[in-house]
Design a protein that fits this description.
The chain has one domain. The chain contains four helices and no strands. Helix 2 packs antiparallel against helix 4. By secondary structure, the chain is an all-alpha fold. About 0% of the residues are buried.
């Protein structure tokens, strides 16, 4: 990418280029895919919790949506937003 090439042209150390330029921009797709995997987990978790009669967060979140328990749903959305914000420093500004 151009920004990595520009950082190298400035004479920055390779580790600085990787950490501050390449990894920062590469982490966002990882977080997105992790979020999708977490959504799959939330769909699969209530099924597993129901089949094996285990108490868990998956069933609680599904029940909260079904009962329109907005504070629980809002906390889950807030948690995902904070994780996404921590992963992408460009969103902090």
């Amino acid at each position: 990418q151009d920004y990595v090439r520009a950082a190298r042209a400035k004479g920055l150390a390779e580790s600085t280029v990787l950490v501050k330029h390449a990894l920062r921009n590469a982490i966002l797709p990882v977080i997105t895919v992790t979020g999708i995997g977490l959504a799959d987990l939330l769909v699969g978790a209530p099924l597993t919790e129901t089949v094996f009669a285990w108490p868990g967060l998956g069933r609680m979140l599904v029940a909260a949506v079904g009962q329109r328990d907005l504070p629980v749903v809002m906390v889950a959305v807030l948690l995902f937003a904070v994780i996404y914000l921590l992963g992408d420093p460009r969103l902090r500004a």
